Amino acid sequence: xxxxxxxxxxxxxxxxxxxxxxxxxxxxxxxxxxxxxxxxxxxxxxxxxxxxxxxxxxxxxxxxxxxxxxxxxxxxxxxxxxxxxxxxxxxxxxxxxxxxxxxxxxxxxxxxxxxxxxxxxxxxxxxxxxxxxxxxx
Length: 137
Hints:
Layout: E1 3-6, H1 16-31, E2 35-40, H2 47-57, E3 63-66, H3 67-70, H4 77-86, E4 94-98, H5 101-109, E5 113-116, H6 120-131
Parallel strand pairs: 1-2, 1-4, 2-3, 4-5
Helix pairs in contact: 1-6
């Protein structure tokens, strides 16, 4: 796997403690040489878009793709392709984390690895297994 693509709403938009846990986990993924991106169906404007872009500005992720800017929303293949392109990875080499089963299902149909996010601890275990990461997050 070459890239980790994460949804924002319902996954990363949590309290400060959870955001820090995510940030630490994403940094561990990046240390394995894996590119990271956020793919959100958010518009390209407004407070939510700015909050999402902060993840890239801080260096937490390598790229942010907002549907409002890309002109296409998940679960459309083109949305996933835009995120993969943003980190120069083929779709088949990407892992997608989303809290919407329809988006996860679509990602899998497009050849990606999909993880349905329900709780940080569960998602972290799956990421650690996929990317051979040890530690507590």
